[in-house]
Design a protein that fits this description.
2 domains; Rossmann fold; about 325 residues; 11 strands; 7-stranded mixed sheet; alpha/beta; 11 helices; 4-stranded parallel sheet
Length: about 325
Protein backbone atom coordinates (compact mmCIF):
# COMPACT_ATOMS: atom_id res chain seq x y z
CA UNK A 1 0.00 0.00 0.00
CA UNK A 2 1.32 3.44 -0.99
CA UNK A 3 2.13 5.94 1.73
CA UNK A 4 -0.86 7.96 2.86
CA UNK A 5 -0.38 11.69 2.45
CA UNK A 6 -3.93 12.96 1.99
CA UNK A 7 -7.01 11.94 4.03
CA UNK A 8 -10.57 12.70 3.00
CA UNK A 9 -13.49 12.80 5.42
CA UNK A 10 -17.20 12.47 4.67
CA UNK A 11 -20.51 12.07 6.48
CA UNK A 12 -23.07 9.70 5.01
CA UNK A 13 -26.64 8.56 5.60
CA UNK A 14 -28.83 10.20 8.23
CA UNK A 15 -27.26 13.13 10.08
CA UNK A 16 -26.55 12.78 13.79
CA UNK A 17 -25.54 15.32 16.45
CA UNK A 18 -21.80 15.01 17.05
CA UNK A 19 -20.85 14.38 13.43
CA UNK A 20 -19.31 17.86 13.35
CA UNK A 21 -17.23 17.07 16.41
CA UNK A 22 -15.97 13.93 14.65
CA UNK A 23 -15.12 15.85 11.47
CA UNK A 24 -13.31 18.47 13.53
CA UNK A 25 -11.27 15.83 15.36
CA UNK A 26 -10.35 14.02 12.15
CA UNK A 27 -9.24 17.21 10.39
CA UNK A 28 -7.26 18.68 13.27
CA UNK A 29 -5.63 15.37 14.20
CA UNK A 30 -4.68 14.81 10.58
CA UNK A 31 -3.12 18.25 10.27
CA UNK A 32 -1.26 17.80 13.56
CA UNK A 33 0.21 14.54 12.22
CA UNK A 34 1.29 16.11 8.93
CA UNK A 35 -1.45 14.90 6.59
CA UNK A 36 -3.17 16.99 3.94
CA UNK A 37 -6.89 17.02 4.75
CA UNK A 38 -9.85 17.36 2.38
CA UNK A 39 -13.58 17.41 2.98
CA UNK A 40 -15.97 15.45 0.77
CA UNK A 41 -19.40 17.04 0.71
CA UNK A 42 -22.72 15.16 0.58
CA UNK A 43 -21.30 11.74 1.32
CA UNK A 44 -20.64 9.32 -1.53
CA UNK A 45 -22.52 11.68 -3.85
CA UNK A 46 -19.66 14.10 -3.32
CA UNK A 47 -17.14 11.52 -4.45
CA UNK A 48 -19.11 10.79 -7.60
CA UNK A 49 -19.77 14.48 -8.34
CA UNK A 50 -16.30 15.69 -7.25
CA UNK A 51 -17.52 17.93 -4.41
CA UNK A 52 -14.12 18.15 -2.75
CA UNK A 53 -12.64 21.01 -0.71
CA UNK A 54 -9.38 21.59 1.10
CA UNK A 55 -9.61 21.62 4.90
CA UNK A 56 -7.40 23.52 7.32
CA UNK A 57 -7.60 24.27 11.04
CA UNK A 58 -10.06 27.10 10.51
CA UNK A 59 -12.29 25.00 8.25
CA UNK A 60 -13.61 23.23 11.35
CA UNK A 61 -13.75 26.21 13.72
CA UNK A 62 -17.08 26.86 15.45
CA UNK A 63 -18.71 23.57 14.46
CA UNK A 64 -18.23 21.37 17.53
CA UNK A 65 -21.39 22.75 19.15
CA UNK A 66 -23.55 22.56 16.01
CA UNK A 67 -25.95 19.75 15.13
CA UNK A 68 -26.17 18.28 11.65
CA UNK A 69 -23.04 18.09 9.55
CA UNK A 70 -21.02 20.93 8.03
CA UNK A 71 -20.00 18.56 5.23
CA UNK A 72 -23.66 17.83 4.46
CA UNK A 73 -24.91 14.31 3.87
CA UNK A 74 -26.98 12.32 1.42
CA UNK A 75 -27.99 8.82 0.47
CA UNK A 76 -26.48 7.79 -2.85
CA UNK A 77 -28.16 5.16 -5.05
CA UNK A 78 -25.50 5.62 -7.72
CA UNK A 79 -22.83 4.43 -5.32
CA UNK A 80 -24.58 1.06 -4.96
CA UNK A 81 -23.65 0.28 -8.56
CA UNK A 82 -20.22 -0.90 -9.78
CA UNK A 83 -20.06 2.14 -12.08
CA UNK A 84 -20.70 4.53 -9.20
CA UNK A 85 -18.11 2.85 -7.02
CA UNK A 86 -15.54 3.02 -9.82
CA UNK A 87 -16.26 6.71 -10.36
CA UNK A 88 -15.87 7.42 -6.62
CA UNK A 89 -12.51 5.65 -6.56
CA UNK A 90 -11.43 7.59 -9.65
CA UNK A 91 -12.33 10.86 -7.91
CA UNK A 92 -10.16 9.88 -4.96
CA UNK A 93 -7.23 9.25 -7.30
CA UNK A 94 -7.87 12.44 -9.27
CA UNK A 95 -7.77 14.61 -6.13
CA UNK A 96 -4.92 12.68 -4.53
CA UNK A 97 -7.07 11.27 -1.73
CA UNK A 98 -5.16 8.29 -0.34
CA UNK A 99 -7.64 7.28 2.38
CA UNK A 100 -11.15 8.20 3.53
CA UNK A 101 -12.73 8.47 6.99
CA UNK A 102 -16.43 7.65 6.69
CA UNK A 103 -18.82 8.81 9.43
CA UNK A 104 -22.21 7.07 9.28
CA UNK A 105 -24.02 3.79 9.82
CA UNK A 106 -23.86 0.23 8.50
CA UNK A 107 -24.80 1.30 4.97
CA UNK A 108 -21.99 3.84 4.99
CA UNK A 109 -19.55 1.16 6.15
CA UNK A 110 -20.64 -1.15 3.32
CA UNK A 111 -19.81 1.73 0.99
CA UNK A 112 -16.41 2.07 2.65
CA UNK A 113 -15.83 -1.65 2.08
CA UNK A 114 -16.49 -1.16 -1.63
CA UNK A 115 -14.07 1.78 -1.76
CA UNK A 116 -11.46 -0.39 -0.06
CA UNK A 117 -11.91 -3.03 -2.77
CA UNK A 118 -10.98 -0.32 -5.29
CA UNK A 119 -7.75 0.39 -3.43
CA UNK A 120 -8.85 3.29 -1.21
CA UNK A 121 -8.17 2.55 2.49
CA UNK A 122 -11.07 3.53 4.77
CA UNK A 123 -11.86 3.98 8.45
CA UNK A 124 -15.48 4.00 9.65
CA UNK A 125 -16.85 6.00 12.58
CA UNK A 126 -20.33 5.06 13.89
CA UNK A 127 -22.65 8.04 13.52
CA UNK A 128 -26.38 7.34 13.94
CA UNK A 129 -29.02 8.24 16.51
CA UNK A 130 -30.38 4.65 16.45
CA UNK A 131 -27.38 3.10 18.28
CA UNK A 132 -27.89 0.04 16.07
CA UNK A 133 -24.31 -0.63 14.94
CA UNK A 134 -23.32 -4.02 16.31
CA UNK A 135 -19.58 -3.47 16.76
CA UNK A 136 -20.02 -0.59 19.19
CA UNK A 137 -21.92 -0.11 22.42
CA UNK A 138 -22.49 3.55 21.57
CA UNK A 139 -22.95 5.58 18.40
CA UNK A 140 -22.33 9.29 17.85
CA UNK A 141 -25.64 11.15 18.19
CA UNK A 142 -27.48 8.65 20.36
CA UNK A 143 -27.24 10.55 23.65
CA UNK A 144 -28.37 13.85 22.14
CA UNK A 145 -31.30 12.20 20.36
CA UNK A 146 -32.44 10.55 23.60
CA UNK A 147 -32.24 13.83 25.49
CA UNK A 148 -34.13 15.65 22.74
CA UNK A 149 -36.89 13.04 22.79
CA UNK A 150 -37.13 13.17 26.59
CA UNK A 151 -37.38 16.97 26.51
CA UNK A 152 -40.18 16.85 23.92
CA UNK A 153 -42.09 14.16 25.80
CA UNK A 154 -41.76 16.05 29.08
CA UNK A 155 -43.47 18.99 27.36
CA UNK A 156 -46.20 16.72 25.98
CA UNK A 157 -46.70 15.28 29.47
CA UNK A 158 -47.83 18.70 30.72
CA UNK A 159 -50.83 18.78 28.40
CA UNK A 160 -51.42 15.03 28.72
CA UNK A 161 -51.70 15.39 32.50
CA UNK A 162 -53.85 18.51 32.28
CA UNK A 163 -56.45 16.69 30.17
CA UNK A 164 -56.20 13.21 31.72
CA UNK A 165 -55.17 11.91 28.30
CA UNK A 166 -53.06 9.14 26.85
CA UNK A 167 -50.22 10.25 24.60
CA UNK A 168 -48.90 7.75 22.06
CA UNK A 169 -45.50 9.02 20.95
CA UNK A 170 -43.63 7.62 17.94
CA UNK A 171 -39.84 7.83 17.97
CA UNK A 172 -37.26 7.10 15.28
CA UNK A 173 -35.87 3.60 14.79
CA UNK A 174 -37.09 1.55 11.83
CA UNK A 175 -35.34 -1.65 12.80
CA UNK A 176 -34.03 -0.88 16.27
CA UNK A 177 -35.75 0.00 19.52
CA UNK A 178 -32.78 1.21 21.60
CA UNK A 179 -33.85 4.84 21.41
CA UNK A 180 -37.50 4.09 22.19
CA UNK A 181 -36.83 1.67 25.05
CA UNK A 182 -34.39 3.91 26.89
CA UNK A 183 -36.47 7.04 26.37
CA UNK A 184 -39.53 5.13 27.55
CA UNK A 185 -37.80 4.22 30.80
CA UNK A 186 -36.62 7.81 31.21
CA UNK A 187 -40.13 9.29 30.87
CA UNK A 188 -41.97 6.56 32.79
CA UNK A 189 -43.94 5.25 29.80
CA UNK A 190 -46.59 2.67 30.67
CA UNK A 191 -45.63 0.73 27.52
CA UNK A 192 -42.60 0.68 25.17
CA UNK A 193 -43.32 -0.98 21.82
CA UNK A 194 -40.21 -1.88 19.82
CA UNK A 195 -39.49 -4.09 16.77
CA UNK A 196 -37.29 -6.55 18.68
CA UNK A 197 -39.87 -7.58 21.29
CA UNK A 198 -43.24 -9.15 20.30
CA UNK A 199 -46.24 -7.54 21.97
CA UNK A 200 -50.00 -7.84 22.21
CA UNK A 201 -51.90 -4.54 22.24
CA UNK A 202 -54.65 -5.87 24.47
CA UNK A 203 -52.35 -7.46 27.05
CA UNK A 204 -49.37 -5.10 26.96
CA UNK A 205 -51.21 -1.80 26.52
CA UNK A 206 -54.96 -1.89 27.16
CA UNK A 207 -55.00 -4.28 30.14
CA UNK A 208 -52.05 -2.50 31.77
CA UNK A 209 -53.73 0.87 31.41
CA UNK A 210 -57.00 -0.39 32.89
CA UNK A 211 -55.19 -2.05 35.80
CA UNK A 212 -53.10 1.02 36.58
CA UNK A 213 -56.12 3.30 36.19
CA UNK A 214 -57.70 1.48 39.16
CA UNK A 215 -54.78 2.61 41.34
CA UNK A 216 -55.62 6.24 40.63
CA UNK A 217 -53.48 7.00 37.59
CA UNK A 218 -55.31 9.24 35.13
CA UNK A 219 -52.82 10.04 32.36
CA UNK A 220 -50.55 7.79 30.32
CA UNK A 221 -47.47 7.89 28.10
CA UNK A 222 -46.86 5.16 25.51
CA UNK A 223 -43.78 5.20 23.28
CA UNK A 224 -43.65 3.40 19.94
CA UNK A 225 -40.65 2.84 17.68
CA UNK A 226 -40.93 3.94 14.06
CA UNK A 227 -40.43 0.33 13.00
CA UNK A 228 -43.61 -0.63 14.87
CA UNK A 229 -45.52 2.41 13.62
CA UNK A 230 -49.31 2.71 13.49
CA UNK A 231 -49.26 5.23 16.33
CA UNK A 232 -52.41 7.00 15.08
CA UNK A 233 -54.26 3.69 14.83
CA UNK A 234 -53.05 2.66 18.28
CA UNK A 235 -54.34 5.91 19.79
CA UNK A 236 -57.79 5.23 18.30
CA UNK A 237 -57.83 1.67 19.66
CA UNK A 238 -56.86 2.87 23.13
CA UNK A 239 -59.60 5.50 23.18
CA UNK A 240 -62.22 3.01 21.95
CA UNK A 241 -61.31 0.31 24.49
CA UNK A 242 -60.55 2.42 27.57
CA UNK A 243 -62.61 5.57 27.06
CA UNK A 244 -59.48 7.63 27.73
CA UNK A 245 -58.97 10.50 25.29
CA UNK A 246 -55.87 9.61 23.29
CA UNK A 247 -53.60 11.53 20.94
CA UNK A 248 -50.70 10.40 18.75
CA UNK A 249 -47.57 12.47 18.22
CA UNK A 250 -44.77 11.61 15.79
CA UNK A 251 -41.57 13.35 16.90
CA UNK A 252 -39.90 12.79 13.53
CA UNK A 253 -36.72 14.51 12.45
CA UNK A 254 -36.58 16.88 15.41
CA UNK A 255 -34.75 13.98 17.09
CA UNK A 256 -31.82 14.34 14.67
CA UNK A 257 -31.17 18.00 15.38
CA UNK A 258 -29.82 20.15 18.15
CA UNK A 259 -26.51 20.95 19.77
CA UNK A 260 -24.72 17.68 20.65
CA UNK A 261 -24.39 16.66 24.28
CA UNK A 262 -21.09 16.45 26.14
CA UNK A 263 -21.04 12.69 25.68
CA UNK A 264 -21.52 12.96 21.92
CA UNK A 265 -18.88 15.67 21.56
CA UNK A 266 -16.28 13.79 23.59
CA UNK A 267 -16.99 10.36 22.08
CA UNK A 268 -16.89 11.78 18.56
CA UNK A 269 -13.61 13.54 19.31
CA UNK A 270 -12.00 10.37 20.70
CA UNK A 271 -13.19 8.31 17.74
CA UNK A 272 -12.06 10.93 15.23
CA UNK A 273 -8.59 10.99 16.74
CA UNK A 274 -8.39 7.20 16.67
CA UNK A 275 -9.39 7.10 12.99
CA UNK A 276 -6.39 9.18 11.97
CA UNK A 277 -4.15 7.30 14.38
CA UNK A 278 -5.08 4.01 12.70
CA UNK A 279 -4.22 5.38 9.28
CA UNK A 280 -0.91 6.70 10.61
CA UNK A 281 -0.15 3.22 11.97
CA UNK A 282 -0.98 1.58 8.65
CA UNK A 283 -4.06 -0.14 10.03
CA UNK A 284 -6.61 0.18 7.25
CA UNK A 285 -10.26 -0.70 6.57
CA UNK A 286 -11.34 -0.63 10.20
CA UNK A 287 -14.45 0.51 12.07
CA UNK A 288 -13.94 2.38 15.35
CA UNK A 289 -16.26 1.63 18.26
CA UNK A 290 -16.75 1.92 22.01
CA UNK A 291 -16.61 -1.07 24.35
CA UNK A 292 -16.62 -0.83 28.14
CA UNK A 293 -15.82 2.89 27.82
CA UNK A 294 -12.70 2.15 25.76
CA UNK A 295 -12.13 3.04 22.10
CA UNK A 296 -11.72 -0.14 20.05
CA UNK A 297 -11.62 -1.04 16.36
CA UNK A 298 -12.50 -3.98 14.14
CA UNK A 299 -12.01 -4.88 10.50
CA UNK A 300 -14.93 -3.67 8.37
CA UNK A 301 -15.84 -7.23 7.45
CA UNK A 302 -15.91 -8.30 11.09
CA UNK A 303 -17.87 -5.22 12.12
CA UNK A 304 -20.55 -5.81 9.49
CA UNK A 305 -20.88 -9.48 10.43
CA UNK A 306 -21.67 -8.74 14.08
CA UNK A 307 -25.20 -8.83 15.48
CA UNK A 308 -26.64 -6.55 18.16
CA UNK A 309 -29.65 -7.40 20.32
CA UNK A 310 -31.80 -5.33 22.63
CA UNK A 311 -31.41 -6.44 26.24
CA UNK A 312 -34.79 -7.97 27.25
CA UNK A 313 -34.04 -6.96 30.83
CA UNK A 314 -34.82 -3.38 29.82
CA UNK A 315 -38.34 -4.42 28.85
CA UNK A 316 -38.78 -6.17 32.20
CA UNK A 317 -37.54 -3.11 34.08
CA UNK A 318 -39.76 -0.79 32.07
CA UNK A 319 -42.89 -2.84 32.80
CA UNK A 320 -42.07 -3.19 36.48
CA UNK A 321 -41.45 0.45 37.35
CA UNK A 322 -44.06 2.08 35.13
CA UNK A 323 -47.12 0.75 36.98
Amino acid sequence: MAEIKTIGVLTSGGDAPGMNAAVRAVVRTGIAKGFRMVGIERGYNGLINEEIREMDLRSVSEIIHRGGTALYTARCKAFTTPEGQEKAAETCKKFGIDAVVVIGGDGSFRGAMQLAKHGIPCIGLPGTIDNDIACTEYTIGYDTAMNTAVEMIDKLRDTTQSHDRCSVIELMGRGAGYLTMNVGIAVGAIACLVPEIPFDVQKDVIDRMIAVQKTGKKHFIIVVAEGVGHSQELAKIIEEKTGIESRATILGHVQRGGSPSVRDRVTASLMGYRAVELLELGSYNRVVGLKSDAIVDYSINEALSMKKTLDPKLDEISKTISL
